[in-house]
Amino acid sequence: xxxxxxxxxxxxxxxxxxxxxxxxxxxxxxxxxxxxxxxxxxxxxxxxxxxxxxxxxxxxxxxxxxxxxxxxxxxxxxxxxxxxxxxxxxxxxxxxxxxxxxxxxxxxxxxxxxxxxxxxxxxxxxxxxxxxxxxxxxxxxxxxxxxxxxxxxxxxxxxxxxxxxxxxxxxxxxxxxxxxxxxxxxxxxxxxxxxxxxxxxxxxxxxxxxxxxxxxxxxxxxxxxxxxxxxxxxxxxxxxxxxxxxxxxxxxxxxxxxxxxxxxxxxxxxxxxxxxxxxxxxxxxxxxxxxxxxxxxxxxxxxxxxxxxxxxxxxxxxxxxxxxxxxxxxxxxxxxxxxxxxxxxxxxxxxxxxxxxxxxxxxxxxxxxxxxxxxxxxxxxxxxxxxxxxxxxxxxxxxxxxxxxxxxxxxxxxxxxxxxxxxxxxxxxxxxxxxxxxxxxxxxxxxxxxxxxxxxxxxxxxxxxxxxxxxxxxxxxxxxxxxxxxxxxxxxxxxxxxxxxxxxxxxxxxxxxxxxxxxxxxxxxxxxxxxxxxxxxx
Length: 538
What we know:
35% of the residues lie in helices and 13% in strands. The protein is α+β, with helices and mostly antiparallel strands.
């Protein structure tokens, strides 16, 4: 074997040798070690001991950390599997408030009245305001969720009258349950089927192999807007689904791009409905975007609004203040002939599958749901497909000046100040996720899980897996006081933090030791499935 330090060897031979640092990272990935650990200083308030601990980065994408992405994918699979076919209602009943919590709310009521009286009398309220803030914090620290005031700002409302071009939907009386129908076979066997639904957006033009046949006629503007507002359309579908089903339908869904780069949805739904009703719901679901018009471009190139402190953005020619976001919406509300900026709907392609608990179809659907969760939406592009990359570039061009939110700087292009406007904004320079090429216009969450799906958070699912592994190893899972440690970030370049390669080597050794222990248990005939245990390891 040649020595890499032998300078007499030809350069091509030495450069062909594996780089030791890269091999360390490859071995770390092989053993499931996080390759981008975050060093944190941990202070034990009981003993006073302080040390530096590596915490997994928690990345969800393979491009950043394959090990953490794999663990997160397995967590999502466990979450989907546990909640899909529940046969009992998840418990979500809040506990009764104790005497101390009631006392805090009573004091908060008194403080509010004292503050209102002082304001009415023209007296200063700064001290009372500070006391109220402290009381609100103590209310949360005492174990109560939320804010005592709830929503304090008004919500704009529009007519809920359905569009004339949307079919009506049947409506059933709501039942206080999250479980679907139960079926019984002649032999007495009980079945509680569920559904796997796939929803897509409409066509924007003929495509072949994911690429428009005629890019000139492909409706990129509509494709961009549909992608921007796809998450709202999914919310509307869930609302309609629950109204028609007559119970609190629970779901686990994943958003991923089609080959044509339009987002589509895979949804595991607890309970079942007739396929005809699902198709009817999809056809009747729409979302109207009530935003100011963007038909007329008022400012572009070097002719852009000018920022003025304490005033906002001004017209560069007349010096007039541009309408604020709220003023623009007020004008829209007053116009009885106004039309929504955009209406997004689902396409005709719809797939509905019935799934039974514990079947091969259920496992296959769960794997399919989590298939692309470790990849960004842009990673689905074929690097060797030049036509598809040009298609993605044209979509990015259509998205560049399209407003993605109420705070998007692109509103200046159409003569409206975005909400929370500030100096330095310019059309075409929005930093929102939707405008980045790797997101293809979709800035929402990739995984959508209803609150009563499994009645557990991801942290609780992770703790379940940790408990399972410890029990398999015969180690007691001792509870740790969550308030025992104080965690602080370690400044970059801290001399007490070892080099990354050294930390990876230590983690690999620890994982080797753990794996050897598992192999010993298998050799002793414990019947422990090593592969399953590695999958459950935190």
